[in-house]
Amino acid sequence: MRHACALPVTHGLNPVLPVVAVIALLALPVPPGDEGGLTPADAASGAVVLCCAVRLLHHRRRPLSPTAAVVLGLPVVGIAVAAAGAGDPGTAVTGFSRYLQIFVLVPAAVLLLVRDRRDLRLLAWSVVALAVWQGAVGVHQYATGTGASYMGQEIRAVGTFRPGDVMGMATVVGFGLVCAVGLALVPGSVRQRAWAVACALLLLVPLAVSFSRGAWIATALACAAQLALAGLRRAVAAGAVVAAAAVIVVGGFGIGSGLLQERLSSIGQVADAPDQSVTDRYTMWAAAAGMWRERPLTGVGLKGFSYHRDSHASLALSSGSDVEGAGMEYRKQPLLSPHNMYLLLLGEQGLIGLLALAGSWLALLVLGVRRLIRARRAQDADLDCGLVACGLLVWQLTDFAYADIGGPSTVLTAVCLGLTAWWALAGREPALSDVSRKAASR
């Protein structure tokens, strides 16, 4: 058994390959009726944590630096308090496990398994490849009218995800586009930059036909942050290229121009004449705020939003959202979350949970941006890694204002948080791979 554990060291097997497998498994179609169940990618993420634990035991070293332990362990406080105060112990255990998986265990495992910038680039390109695949499936759905229903037409791109998870493809494509932009902004291999630019431009099309306003806003802000952090000259040049590509894609080829214009204009009109989906979202936001006012410190408990929703929501809330298309028959999907991660935390976990999780994310952002600024001043070769990591976190924190965790694509959020954690926290203590190399050389 000892020799089996030593194989990855002596033969140089890349320890991040299990993480690549998690990303690759998200390309598989989601079987009908399994939108909320355990997916192969979730199972593989558990294997990633197990693999990391085995390597730690084999090398007998402290897993995390004190700073990393505090930053990544902080969410456990709020999650545990909310689980203890939940009304249903069964759902509380499920919720506790899910939050622990997404925000603590998988990010920590990715942090420990990534050895250097080459590993981070490998994972970034894996995300780009997944986004290109999902985007290609989504564009085909839009072109052939086999996507999810939108405005009476089955044209909404959802990739291999089901219509019940309309944000799945948009999330993957958004992450992939942010990774491609980060890889393209730093001078280096001409071939890498060319491929990154090409992928970023291609991914604009599926992002557009996802008709996801939240993903559009998150991607725009994340890419703008990347451009600003990369430097003014690169920002101007890249911004001009993206603007020209957007004009060509939407205007020149007429890809959904009418529907896109209507969807874009609705972003600024939601307060004046909101459609039913926006009304439902506002109503659920108000319900989550009401739960917080009722129990400001601890909230109503994990998985408690759906149980307390009706007692806090107004009559404006509909019975559910209409879901059909992409191989699924028409049905009503119940509205079981406020579609706002911050309000979900506030309602279910109270101020303790919100401050714990948001505090962890804010620490990662501050540490990551600080290291990125230092790398840019020193003209460090790791600059593209910093742009990818910070861009992914900005995307996720922005998207959390319009969405929450749920669906098969959530495990990719955990992986991206791990990439950000490596950039923000690595270097404070020797990486697990450094110990592996030393052991192999003896």
Give an overview of the whole structure.
The protein has 17 helices and four strands. With 442 residues, it is mainly alpha-helical. It has one domain (2-28, 39-270, 336-441). The strands form two sheets. A two-stranded antiparallel ribbon has the order 1-2. Helix 9 runs antiparallel to helix 15 and helix 14 (341-377) packs antiparallel against helix 15 (383-399). The radius of gyration is 22 Å and the shape is globular. The chain starts with a helix and ends with a helix.
Task: Record the SSE blueprint.
Layout: H1 2-10, H2 17-25, H3 40-59, H4 66-84, H5 89-113, H6 117-144, E1 148-150, E2 153-156, H7 167-184, H8 190-209, H9 213-230, H10 232-252, H11 257-267, H12 276-294, H13 305-312, E3 321-325, E4 328-333, H14 341-377, H15 383-399, H16 410-425, H17 432-441
Antiparallel strand pairs: 1-2, 3-4
Features:
single chain, 442 residues, mainly alpha, two-stranded antiparallel ribbon, 17 helices, 69% helix, disordered N terminus, disordered C terminus
Outline? globular
Number of helices: 17
Number of strands: 4
Record the strand order, biggest sheet. Answer: 1-2
Strand-pairing-aware structural class: mainly alpha
- Percentage of β-strand residues: under 5%
Helix percent reads 55-70%
Order of helices and strands: HHHHHHEEHHHHHHHEEHHHH
First-last Cα distance: 20 Å
Mean pLDDT: 83
Rg result: 22 Å
How can the largest sheet be summarized? Answer: 2 strands, antiparallel
Runs in which pLDDT lies below 50 for 5 or more consecutive residues are 1-11, 428-442
How many distinct folded domains?
Answer: 1
Q: Could you state the oligomeric state of the chains shown?
A: single chain
